[in-house]
Amino acid sequence: MPQLNPGPWFFTMMLAWLTFSLIIQPKISAFTSTNAPLNKTHTTTKTSPWAWPWT
After folding, report:
1. Which of 39, 38, 20, 37 is nearest to 29 (CA)?
2. I need a labelling partner for 22 at 20 to 30 A (CA). Which of 6, 31, 44, 53 fits?
3. How remote is the C-alpha of 31 from its chain's centroid?
């Protein structure tokens, strides 16, 4: 079964994983969010029970 042979693809997988973890991931982590979340007070809405017409 040739799909179980890791020989031709193992090096490609490791190279892609190392590229992501050593080069791309630190650059992505360095970005700062432009819209930081604000501490807003949560307002609760007053709900009223439904007036069913048949009760």
Report:
1. 20
2. 6
3. 15
Q: What's the full length of the chain, in residues?
A: 55
Give dist(CA 52, CA 55) in Å, integer.
Answer: 6
Rounded to whole angstroms, the Cα distance separating 5 from 14 reads 15
- Per-residue pLDDT tens for 16-35? 999 988 888 888 888 876 77
User: What is the per-residue burial (b if ≥16 Cβ within 10 Å, else e) of 23-46?
Assistant: eeeeeeeeeeeeeeeeeeeeeeee
Is the pLDDT higher at 11 or at 28?
A: 11
What is the amino acid identity at position 3? Q
